[in-house]
Specification:
The structure is a homodimer of 147-residue chains. Chain A is α+β, with helices and mostly antiparallel strands. Chain A has two domains: 86 residues, Winged helix-like DNA-binding domain superfamily/Winged helix DNA-binding domain (Arc Repressor Mutant, subunit A, Orthogonal Bundle); 51 residues, 2-Layer Sandwich (Dna Ligase, domain 1), CATH 3.30.1490.190. The first copy, chain A, has seven helices and five strands. The interface between A and B is large, with 39 and 39 residues. Chain A binds a DNA duplex (25 and 25 nucleotides) through α4 and β2.
DNA sequence: GTAAGTGCAAATGATTTGCACAGCG
DNA sequence: CGCTGTGCAAATCATTTGCACTTAC
């Protein structure tokens, strides 16, 4: 990453920390960078491994604590799919997931029709629906090609 | 439960065990009974507590082992929603869930329109979709009434 | 300077496993 | 009787927490 981008990124992250009222630390900066660069919905361990390359002294619990902080301020989403391990998504806008049951890869996708379809009566009677989350499960192209 | 029902239930469970090639034990029978009677998607601990009333000597790991066995043979579904703890659903037919973000209660529901809606192109290109799982999240009636 | 953030290690909670004994087929 | 299933306790895995030290503001 070039100096200019780094500077710009730092500037952006500074604003985020200010608006959240949290301190800007090197660890948080790098965890945030890893999250934004990640396109694979990494687990806490995955994030730890990636951040460790830049910040060798970081500890796993700092990663957990930072992820919890980010989630609290709505910077990221915590997701659970297939296995019990939590995964983290820097995409906080409303979206659904494509989940490969073979390699466990998670891909974001949107489906406006589902979002706008009128709710069935059972759902309306149940209570107040705040969000619709759809998981399409199957085998991704990569796994299909591999056999 | 009356004698007749118990006998009938035992008969049914015997058939299930035979078709799965597993032994019929008292523990399995009672765990299965609890599952069928449960309408609240209990966790392993919940199931353990309920079975314990009938089988005081049962151990938690037997519950886990039995649930894993049942899942392997498709008698139940393991579900994850909101919190990381696994929950178990004796309803193995395709269905969706209403999840209360306050009391964490899970309710089954069906939504044929979603099941039959043509997939968006991004999903078709991603790979082969095998299942659609929808989670409607919100506040259930009980929680709304309580404030 | 001071409260928030970090690192370490130890605790926790859910789930799994090794082993010896018990009981189904 | 033999092998599967069970119970106990100990192990494991993801995640959390207590505490003393460090650092951003």
């Amino acid at each position: 990453m070039e100096t200019k981008d780094t500077k710009k990124f730092l500037e952006e992250f500074k604003k985020i920390c200010e608006s959240c009222g949290i301190k800007l630390t090197y660890q948080r900066l790098e965890i945030y960078r890893v999250l934004l660069e990640a396109k694979d919905h990494p687990s806490a361990e995955d994030i730890f491994a990636r951040v460790q390359e830049r910040v060798p002294t970081i500890s796993l619990d700092t990663v957990y604590r930072t992820l919890a902080t980010f989630e609290k301020f709505g910077l990221i989403c915590k997701i659970y799919a297939l296995d019990e391990k939590a995964r983290f998504d820097p995409n906080v806008s409303h979206h659904h997931h494509l989940v490969c049951t073979k390699c466990h890869k998670i891909t974001d996708f949107e489906w406006q029709e589902v979002d706008h379809l009128p709710l069935p009566s059972q759902a309306r009677q149940w209570g107040e629906i705040k969000d619709r989350y759809l998981e399409l499960r199957g085998i991704c192209k990569d796994c299909l090609e591999k056999g």
